[in-house]
Specification:
homodimer; alpha/beta; 5-stranded parallel beta sheet; 7 helices; about 35% helix; about 10% strand; globular
């Protein structure tokens, strides 16, 4: 594959994806795109920078979407100080289908911008680290979501960009196994939504991460 | 209709749409959203502000996407100084299907941001002024594009936002007739892609606008 763009948050899934695309798809020119959207865990962006450097990307662009939190004010615990990040155990079954950490239409915004960047740079393939969570879910991380976004992009009369989400049906432990085999340095990835100095261990993504490491039976060196 | 959001560029179509939605759909709380994305014709934004005020919107937000021109550098004559705005008559038949004034995936970016804003504000209906041009075309102004974007948004497990493009199958002259009947002040709308002090009269959108006024048989007071 000549060129590819990876959406890189700096979390476990997208860091794995970056190295996966580089090594397994033998990409010549690898690009990475990250977003500063007012997330409480902006700490992830330093990890994104580090992973991009490790993977030797041709360009890593961090797009300043700091206005986004204001645009969706009150819309998400991930961006709004007045809405606390919940513990996973405090979420009801119904809430787990669309938790307070869901960010309104964020992923379509990210993929649209990624497709614009890719199209302008002659990159046909965009990789997105969506992954099926066990414990909670987001509609904009599903296989259907990616398929429908591609149905939009396919209408382009020029050279259409395609979104690939190779991990969309994998469990987090599967992703972790792939990354460990590729030698990904997980001590330089960030998951915790609370974004404190150390991972909180109880927010939804901390629990998912811990479960994945436990399942695989390795130590998470970040903790 | 309780609340609605209108994508407002400040051009003829979206200005008409704003007043159309307000009056014909009897919207209580009308919102407008505009984007400063590095367009050469940013003059349109002053017109957007004026139209929003005339329509008595509850909130008119102009989102600063000035990074967008850099993200798609070289991707569009609308944002790149090195790429001249063409005259319509200089475009070949093939070019008219995707002219240099096409902006890579811009409209999906705009609609995604609009849907995010709407979802966070409890607004279910977003109006988009896409309109079938006679002389040239953009894939992201078509009925199919809007339908497929809605297929994405419909996956939302919360309250899904719907995009409406009531002018998508109309000619510009039809839109103009609707707006004249509604009393829209077209002297405060801007179309010209070149964005000079006066409309150039020869770029694709100037020609479309002139043809529409000629067809309807009224004078364009902007000229």
């Amino acid at each position: 594959m000549k060129a590819a763009l990876v959406l890189l948050s700096g979390g476990l899934d997208s860091a794995t994806l970056l190295h996966f695309v580089k090594k397994r798809r033998k990409v010549q020119d690898l690009y990475a795109l990250s977003f500063a959207y007012g997330q409480k865990h902006s700490r992830e962006l330093a990890m994104a920078r580090r992973q991009a450097r490790d993977a030797g990307v041709k360009e890593h662009r961090i797009v300043d979407l700091s206005f986004f939190g204001g645009l969706i004010a009150g819309g998400s615990a991930l961006t709004d100080k007045a809405i606390p990040i919940p513990n996973l155990t405090d979420l009801s079954g119904r809430q787990r289908r669309q938790p307070p950490t869901y960010v309104p239409n964020r992923n379509q915004v990210f993929l649209s911008l990624a497709a614009a960047y890719a199209e302008a740079h002659g990159i046909r393939d965009v990789f997105y680290g969506a992954q099926a969570q066990d414990e909670y879910g987001y509609w904009d991380c599903t296989v259907d979501f990616v398929r429908r976004i591609n149905q939009v992009l396919r209408l382009n009369r020029g050279k259409a960009v395609a979104i690939h989400a190779p991990f969309a049906l994998l469990k987090k432990a599967d992703v972790l196994r792939i990354g460990l085999a590729l030698g990904v340095d997980y001590s330089h990835t960030w998951s915790c939504y609370r974004g404190g100095k150390n991972p909180c261990g109880t927010c939804p993504t901390c629990v998912e991460r811990r479960n994945a490491f436990r399942t695989v039976g390795v130590e998470d060196e970040l903790r």
